[in-house]
TrEMBL record:
Signal sequence bounds: none
InterPro entries for the chain: NAD(P)-bd_dom_sf, NmrA-like_oxidored
PANTHER family attached to this UniProt entry: NITROGEN METABOLITE REPRESSION PROTEIN NMRA FAMILY MEMBER, NMRA-LIKE DOMAIN-CONTAINING PROTEIN
A single Gene Ontology CC term: nucleus
Superkingdom classification of source: Eukaryota
SUPFAM superfamilies: NAD(P)-binding Rossmann-fold domains
Keywords: NADP
Gene3D superfamilies found in the cross-reference section: NAD(P)-binding Rossmann-like Domain (3.40.50.720)
Name listed for the protein in its UniProt record: NmrA-like domain-containing protein
Organism: Immersiella caudata
Length: 163
C-alpha cells in the first residue's frame, strides 16, 4: 500500500478548507517546510471568532481606532496541533520537516513562497503584539467565548470530516 502524504499549512479561508479536504480521509504523515516545534498564532474557528472580534472592536469605539487586533488567543506548535488532531480523531499523525526544495517539488511555486513564510515565522514573531495592537483583554473578549484549535478540530470530527 502506498503511503499518503498530507501537508498541514495552517492556512485559513478557502486555502484552509482545501487543507481540511485533503486531511479528512487521509491519516498518516504530514510534511511541512518548518520546524515541527515552531509556534504559530491560531485563529480557531473562522466561522465564529472573527465575528467576536468585530463586535468588540465596534463596541470599543475610539480606543480601537488605528489599532490592529490579532484574531487569536492561542499559539501552538505544528507538533502540538498534530498531537491534538491525532488524540481527537484517533488517527495516527506525525509532522515531518522537509527542505524548501522538497516542499516546492510537492506544492510548486506557491510552496516555495509558503516555505519562506514558515521560515520567516521561525526567525521572528510576525504576530508579536506591540503598542499598535489592541489585545483581546482590552476589547473585553472572554476566552470561554472563543472557539480555539481544539474546539475547531472537535467540531470537524463530530461533523464526520475526518471519517
Amino acid at each position: 500500500m502506498a503511503e499518503k502524504i498530507i501537508a498541514v499549512t495552517g492556512a485559513t479561508g478557502a486555502q484552509g478548507g482545501g487543507v481540511v479536504n485533503v486531511m479528512k480521509k487521509t491519516p498518516g504523515w504530514k510534511i511541512i517546510a518548518s520546524d515541527p516545534n515552531a509556534k504559530i498564532l491560531l485563529a480557531g474557528d473562522m466561522s465564529v471568532n472573527p465575528g467576536i472580534w468585530t463586535r468588540q472592536v465596534l463596541a470599543a469605539g475610539p480606543k480601537a481606532i488605528g489599532k490592529y487586533a490579532n484574531v487569536a488567543l492561542e499559539r501552538w506548535s505544528f507538533k502540538e496541533m498534530m498531537d491534538k488532531w491525532s488524540e481527537i480523531t484517533g488517527k495516527k499523525g506525525r509532522v515531518v520537516q522537509v527542505s524548501e526544495e522538497e516542499w516546492t517539488a510537492f506544492w510548486g511555486p506557491a510552496g516555495r513562497e509558503l516555505s519562506w513564510q514558515f521560515r520567516f515565522g521561525e526567525l521572528c514573531d510576525p504576530w508579536e503584539a506591540g503598542s499598535e495592537h489592541i489585545s483581546a483583554e482590552e476589547l473585553g473578549i472572554q476566552e470561554a467565548e472563543v472557539v480555539g484549535f481544539e474546539g475547531t478540530i472537535r467540531s470537524f470530527a463530530q461533523a464526520g470530516l475526518f471519517d
